[in-house]
Amino acid sequence: MSELIMGAYILIWPALTLLVLIMICRGVWKDIVAAKKENRELV
């Protein structure tokens, strides 16, 4: 049983990292679209 818990614990980190990366990319994409609508540079 402890091997199953340890395996799940190790495998959850890539999933959490992927979710955070998706959230960051989504936020950057929204900023890019908003900047294009306002006809300004992103930086």
From TrEMBL:
| Keyword flag Membrane | yes
The protein's UniProt keywords, in alphabetical order, are: Membrane, Transmembrane, Transmembrane helix
Q: What's the superkingdom here?
A: Bacteria
InterPro entries according to UniProt: Trnsprt_adja_ssu-like
Q: Which residues cross the membrane?
A: 6-29
Name listed for the protein in its UniProt record: Transporter small subunit
The organism encoding this protein is: Oceanimonas smirnovii
Lineage summary: Bacteria, Pseudomonadati, Pseudomonadota, Gammaproteobacteria, Aeromonadales
